[in-house]
Automatic annotation (TrEMBL):
Homodimer. One of its GO terms (molecular function) is isocitrate dehydrogenase (NAD+) activity. GO terms for biological process: isocitrate metabolic process; L-leucine biosynthetic process; tricarboxylic acid cycle. SMART domains: Iso_dh (SM01329). Its EC number is 1.1.1.85. Belongs to the isocitrate and isopropylmalate dehydrogenases family. This is 3-isopropylmalate dehydrogenase. It is an enzyme of class 1 (oxidoreductase). Keywords: Amino-acid biosynthesis, Branched-chain amino acid biosynthesis, Leucine biosynthesis, Magnesium, Manganese, Metal-binding, NAD, Oxidoreductase. Residues 2-322 form the Isopropylmalate dehydrogenase-like domain. Its cofactor is Mn(2+); Mg(2+). SUPFAM superfamilies: Isocitrate/Isopropylmalate dehydrogenase-like.
């Protein structure tokens, strides 16, 4: 198993080492391939990611990624969008599940749902024209893209409660009618119970009634916005992991950004990055991945937490505590 390890920028350089320590605690055989990609690399060399870097990534099975700062250059091509397209990582998967003792804006802890977002097209198609008086982006919805994301969501739903919610805006965006129709057809063929909601209504309902949902499937931009919004339900962007899944590759990253305002202080919360390790192990079919949940519950109970959660522990101390728990309980 070859794993590309990309710390990236800002707090990525702190949370990824903590996550790697947790991964190492499982004693699995990984060939870890470190790569420097991001804004710091661009500042020094004028290139955030080279073609050679991309080839090295393609030689790996999976990627563990920290965070990247946006390059202040109008000609800059997003590193993340490039990797997603090159590896055809069509499914963005973000679980939204509360951690023991951490309460979000709803004050609830009775929810556990997953947002499955189409990851390669929609308004992130990259087909754009920027002008002085007119700028536009082409929104692309294809049958192929809609079929494979709805199939992924249905397969996930069948492993869980068997319920799917399709989120769209087909009353205004007519291209969404194709997405909605394909998702309905796919759910019917899989025997999955489904419903659909307009994205604006869904945003309200997710905050007010998160316990009603299990697997949510939607288009690229809507999924991006809804999943970031739902971080408020669990208490922080620093607690939410994500996976980008394709037929051949997988890419795991915490939802938070590079947070340059706290970078280098050793206080960033590594739990989202550590939960990315859990998703990586689950993708590999490793049942011991569940130990990470138990380890996090243990350290939360003992208040071994970073300042954002009201504690005094450093990023490294949290990672070390999770790793120790796993080694003691394997």
């Amino acid at each position: 198993m070859r794993l590309a390890v990309i710390e990236g920028d800002g707090i990525g350089r702190e949370v990824i080492p903590a996550a790697v320590e947790v991964l190492d605690a499982f004693g699995l055989e990984f060939e870890k391939v470190p790569l420097e990609i991001g804004y710091a690399r661009w500042e020094r060399t004028g290139t955030a990611m080279s073609e050679e870097d991309m080839e090295i990534i393609k030689s790996c099975n999976a990627v563990l990624f920290g965070a990247v700062t946006t390059v202040p250059d109008p000609g800059y091509k997003s590193v993340l969008l490039t990797i997603r397209k090159e590896l055809d990582l069509y499914a963005n998967v973000r679980p939204v599940k509360p951690l023991s003792g951490v309460v979000g804006v709803s004050g609830r802890s009775d929810f556990d749902f997953i947002i499955v977002r189409e990851n390669t097209e929609g308004l992130y198609s990259g087909i754009e024209e920027i002008g002085h008086d007119l700028s536009w982006t082409k929104r692309v919805i294809t049958r192929k893209g809609s079929e494979r994301i709805s199939e992924y969501a249905c397969e996930l739903a069948k492993k869980r409660s068997g319920k799917l919610t399709i989120v769209h805006k087909s009353n205004v965006l007519k291209s969404d009618k194709l997405f909605l129709d394909v998702c309905r057809e796919t759910a019917s063929s899989y025997g999955v119970e489904y419903g659909d909601m307009l994205v604006d209504s869904m945003a309200y309902s997710l905050i007010m009634h998160p316990e009603k949902y299990d697997v949510v499937v939607t288009t690229n931009l809507f999924g991006d916005i809804l999943s970031d919004m739902c971080a408020a339900l669990v208490g922080s962007l620093g607690l939410v992991p994500s996976a980008n899944i394709g037929k051949k590759y997988a890419f795991f990253e915490p939802v938070h950004g590079s947070a340059p305002d706290i970078a280098g202080k050793g206080i960033s919360n590594p739990l989202a990055a550590i939960l990315c390790v859990k998703m990586l192990l689950e993708w590999m079919g490793k049942p011991e991945a569940r130990l990470i949940d138990a380890a996090i519950a243990d350290l939360l109970q003992k208040k071994i937490i970073t300042p954002d959660l009201g504690g005094r522990a450093s990023t490294a101390e949290v990672g070390n505590a999770v790793a120790k728990y796993i080694m003691q309980n394997l």
